[in-house]
Amino acid sequence: MHAPARAYDSANAARRILRAFGAADLAMLEAELEKSAGLLPATASLPPDEAERQELLEAVAQAMRGALTHVHRRLGGRLHAGEVHLALLRHLARTAPAPPA
After folding, report:
1. How far apart are CA 43 and CA 101, in angstroms?
2. How many whole angstroms separate alpha carbon 90 and alpha carbon 70?
3. Tens-place pLDDT, residues 37-85
4. How far apart, in whole angstroms, are the C-alpha atoms of residue 56 and residue 62?
5. Which of 19, 39, 64, 96 has the most CB atoms less than 10 A away?
6. Contacts of 12 by beta carbon, 8 Å cutoff, 6+ apart
7. Could you tell me the CA-to-CA distances from 76 to 30, 69, 71, 85 in Å, in that order?
């Protein structure tokens, strides 16, 4: 039996990251990327489909955090997220989490 899904699911996290990226707000994007790492529950406590989405979200967020580090080291500039990362976030944003068992 799985624990109930938390309100902060992969779809909501993906939407928030996309919103921050679309707004070109690096501070908000950084905060949302950190939330995706710090607020998501352990995948073992989730239904398998949501655990897989959480793992995908974390991989994309980690890559984007790396890109943010580049931006900060150059003291400015633009954040370039790969089209693959943005496509994966859009997919996660459209994918509703499975209902709690």
Report:
1. 15
2. 23
3. 765 556 567 778 888 888 889 889 988 888 787 766 665 555 666 788 8
4. 10
5. 64
6. none
7. 14, 10, 6, 21
Burial class (CB within 10 angstroms; exposed 0-12, middle 13-18, buried 19+) of 73: exposed
CA distances (Å), origin 72, targets 26, 58, 75, 97: 10, 21, 5, 34
Q: From 66, 60, 68, select the one nearest 86 (Cα to Cα).
A: 60
Contacts of 26 (CB under 8 A, 6+ apart): 68, 71, 79
